[in-house]
Structure prediction request, 474 residues.
Amino acid sequence: MKKKDNLSFYENVQRNFDKAAAHLTYPKGILEQIKECNAVYQMRFPVKVGNKIEVIEAYRVQHSHHRLPTKGGIRFSHHVNQDEVMALAALMTYKCAIVDVPFGGAKGGVKISPREYSVEALEKITRRYTVELIRKNFIGPSNDVPAPDYGTGEREMAWILDTYATFKNGSEIDAAGCVTGKPVNQSGIQGRTEATGRGVFYGLKEICDDKDMMKELGMDMGIAGKTMVIQGMGNVGSYAGSISQNEGDVKVIAVSEIEGTIHDPNGLDMDKLIKYRKKNGTIIGFGKSKALKVREDWVGLECDILVPAALESQIHKGNAKQVKAKIVAEAANGPVTSEAEDILNKKGVCILPDMYLNAGGVTVSYFEWLKNLSHMRFGRMEKRFNQNTYNKLLNSVEELTGKSVSARDRAMLIKGADEVDLVRSGLEETMINSYQQFIQIYKRRKNITDLRTAAFVCALNKVANDYTTLGVFP
Prediction:
């Protein structure tokens, strides 16, 4: 059995922090304040499941209060522990900073395996967890805003909102902003479900359009035609694969899930694969693909882009040497350990860090939160005005040229932006702008030799600036 890393997930995050902090000149006290978690809430609560009472272990961690509210998902997994939740909360602080989302980092976790519970039991657990958060003031649109994470989704967020609103008895006008990732018909926002996966695509597209980075990696310009291997067919991996394929002309040649890994050098149709797994409960047997004998062998497949989109620490010192990809795109949180990263850096592999690449979820959560506070969907005010303006402009062009535009082309040219169009546009702008910020640090500072350190430096500069200029220290 191959040895894994000695460091825990939280220790890996702290090590990356220290590596970046060495490049900064802020007072030691400020860096220590940024590094540590501000508040850790560990709880145990009883829930009646069937004919027995179970004591549920759960957590909520607020890492940084340099901006409020704090923000971070809630994870349902039997692997949940305090170390993991603290690490994820810290990553959320840096993630929000790097994409200029004005939140502090937080994270929640409930130590259960959702597959082992009925819908009724999951609802009881979710609502009771929410009650515990309300009691300690660890939830609210102005202080701490949860979201979906591994093992949770729109359904759980709707339960959380209903519980919170019930406890507030209609007295809080902005109650819908207490949680994001809600169903669209319950104060959610269009484009949230796909957001993290779409953000992965925008981030990959940006680095593949970067002439300097492509030259450094010995790759051709552009994302089109690149080969991709994806680990994880959850929400993030599925959307990252399908959007990269449909909008970027990427060839997805392998996918790995808990039931196994399938490979087809000619490419897998991601849309059909998603439907196949939903119908059959497995990816094995799809199309002309072949199943690998060892599921973990996805790590060593020949490809341009390797996308770990499942859980943390999937690429470790025991398997990092097998990686043949030029780019490891961290769609999951912390999928590459620090010790594995040292190995990959020596191999010349570019790691596009999680704190940037999977920030699409929190970016669109921010848009949803803004929508909830404004009590109006995006596009409602301007869509028809823009459409009428474009129509008049097109009429003028037709009169001046003496040529007419087909009905189909006219509909496309005068279309006003719907909410989902504005969300996607805002997400793309965010991912492009954020990439340019940390890539300039990487290119200009020769003593910074990897993108994660550059991203950390970029994020820590912003957080430290808040502490030093906003009067946080009396």
Q: What stands out?
A: The mean pLDDT is 94. Residues 134 and 425 are 35 Å apart (CA to CA). The chain is about 45% helix and 15% strand.
